[in-house]
Write a structure and sequence with these properties.
The chain is α/β, with parallel strands linked by helices. The protein is globular, with a radius of gyration of 15 Å. 33% of the residues are buried. The protein has a 5-stranded parallel sheet with strand order 3-2-1-4-5. It has a single domain, classed as 3-Layer(aba) Sandwich (Rossmann fold). It has 7 helices and 5 strands, in the order E-H-H-E-H-H-E-H-H-E-E-H. The protein starts with a strand and ends in a 7-residue tail after the last helix.
Length: 146
């Protein structure tokens, strides 16, 4: 089963020293080990790079973007005009923000119906399931006791 990874997974792993950052880092380790297949959008790379630039600095943000592109077991989907058209409909149907709607449209277009995210806005969408980071770790059989 593929899981869509929202930008906050990568951002927390990179910039947070709190529990959520540790859990996000653990999830990315599990991805690298091949215990699940991850998917995301090229929009996610943009979001993560920009967040890291704001929180740390420009060169660090660029390096994080490069690391994302090289992550094993992570498929990065393109955003097309068709994706954006679908996203606009999702914005109307579910009162989503534009970026969230693009993520949802990307997921549905690529038959990925589970999103790992801390963003509760995804809970509005009938076609997908949002799984928070702690639950994702549990489902993957690697509960972090720390």
């Amino acid at each position: 089963m593929k899981f869509y990874l929202d930008a906050n997974v990568f951002v927390y792993a990179e910039v947070s020293s709190e529990r959520v950052g540790k859990v996000a880092g653990k999830l990315l380790e599990i991805l690298e080990e091949g215990k699940f297949i991850g998917a995301t959008s090229c929009l996610t790379v943009d979001e993560v790079v920009w967040s890291v630039i704001k929180d740390i600095d420009r060169s660090h943000g660029i390096e994080v973007g490069k690391k994302m592109l090289e992550l094993p077991n992570l498929e990065i989907f393109p955003v097309t005009a068709r994706t954006v058209s679908s996203a606009l409909e999702k914005m109307k149907s579910y009162n989503l923000k534009p970026r969230d709607a693009i993520h949802v449209a990307t997921m549905i277009e690529n038959n990925v119906f589970s999103a790992i995210s801390e963003d509760p806005d995804f809970d509005k969408v009938d076609e997908i399931e949002r799984i928070d980071l702690e639950e994702a770790i549990k489902r993957l059989g690697n509960e972090d006791k720390g």
